[in-house]
Hints:
Elements: H1 6-21, E1 26-30, E2 36-38, E3 41-42, H2 49-55, E4 63-67, E5 73-78, H3 83-89, H4 95-101, E6 106-109, H5 113-121, E7 126-129, H6 135-154, E8 165-168, H7 170-178, H8 182-205, H9 212-225, E9 230-231, E10 236-239, E11 260-265, E12 267-269, E13 272-273, E14 276-281, H10 288-306, H11 316-331, H12 339-344, E15 371-372, E16 375-376, E17 384-387, E18 390-393, E19 406-409, E20 412-416, E21 421-423, H13 432-440
Parallel strand pairs: 1-7, 5-6, 7-8
Antiparallel strand pairs: 1-4, 2-3, 4-5, 9-12, 10-11, 11-14, 12-13, 15-16, 17-20, 18-19, 20-21
Helix pairs in contact: 5-6, 8-9, 8-13, 10-11
This protein binds manganese (II) ion (MN).
The site of manganese (II) ion (MN) has 5 residues, from loops.
Amino acid sequence: MILDPTPFHARRERVLAHLQAHGGGVAIIPTAPERERNNGTTYAYRPDSYFWYLTGFREPEAVLVLVAGDSPRHLLFCRAKNAEQEIWTGYRCGPALAAERFVFDEAWTIDELEQRLPELLADEPALWTGIGIDPAWDKRIVAALKATRTLARTGNAGSTSAPATLHDITGVLDEMRLIKDDSELALMRRAAQITAAAHCQAMRTTRPGRHEYEIEAELLHHFRAAGSQYVAYPSIVASGANACVLHYVDNDCRMNDGELLLIDAGCELDGYAADITRTFPVNGRFSGPQRDLYQIVLAANHAARGAIRPGASWNAPHDAAVAVLARGFVDLGLLQGSVDGVIESDSYRRFYMHRTGHWLGMDVHDVGQYKLKGEWRPFVPGMTLTVEPGCYIRPADDVPEAFWNIGIRVEDDALVTADGCEYLTGGVPREIDGIEDLMRS
Ligand SMILES: [Mn+2]
């Protein structure tokens, strides 16, 4: 695969500029380890998001090192070429070609990491890395610092020292990742398109008597056939009462006439997630009570979308969605009292117990603070987030039976633009007419 190394190189330059502005030092960022699933088989490999964001390099057993200072350097440790191993587990780029293709000043084999780290850390003022994420990595960092001190005592006539300061680099990287650049947005748009088309296919192929897993298979087929590498998270395909289980992933029930089907599924394309939820009738026609509830959730989605613009608070779309949902719950007789009372007492949370969105990016629940100094942060162009109001009605004596076991969520992926927000997920209908028309086609 031909890959453009330019955006990855530019991000590393930004990290180096940050180090430079904060006393210099060396940044060390490892990729994710391979993980065993059971008895000698591993999970599909997925690189660490920070490492991937800064390198574009997808092989396991690799470490990025950035050295600030008068002559900044981009360094990579990766697996050596190995003719025997490559027969079994596939191509390895090797340091020489990796340095050329991914634009590193130098690259070495991963076996040299332990020996070279003390030399790279000697006389540096600070070490920047992810701390407290992976205990195995924390141990390696402590060992490298110890080895650097030993080097300082024994080598070079006592003229060297180990870094005096240890910085957690994830906060710096989180703020960078929160604002998407053009190459990231291109991938997120494509991931959203693929996912929207898969949801359309799910709507076209759902009918009473089929099983949830058959529809999951339609989604997976479409994701992979369109070139995406993984699902961004386990797909939720929940018919009837299953939709009231927020993280239902068994997907093994038969779908019945008269039920709704809630699908929360998204693909991951070249490291970027999409996250879409649609809810539609198994038989292609919303019933009266389903329609009443659906219109309320849809109106909450519209209201939340309208509250997203630069300068608005992170919490504004949630407040807007809650206001619409609370009004709807009171109007339908699901909750008693005034709309303000329902909001102030949190009683709406009986039917809407989650928040209205999260950051979206390389991780489906992407990195980035939601508050700054204790206050909800304002939106800035280039941020991407989900908008996902819902309602979940379990059977109860004080709830009209017509609404029992209805779970609805309408989730879209939003980009904050210069003057408002844009949905990346317009490729799958969310209005009742659009859904029913598609299911008839
Ligand atoms: Mn979501």
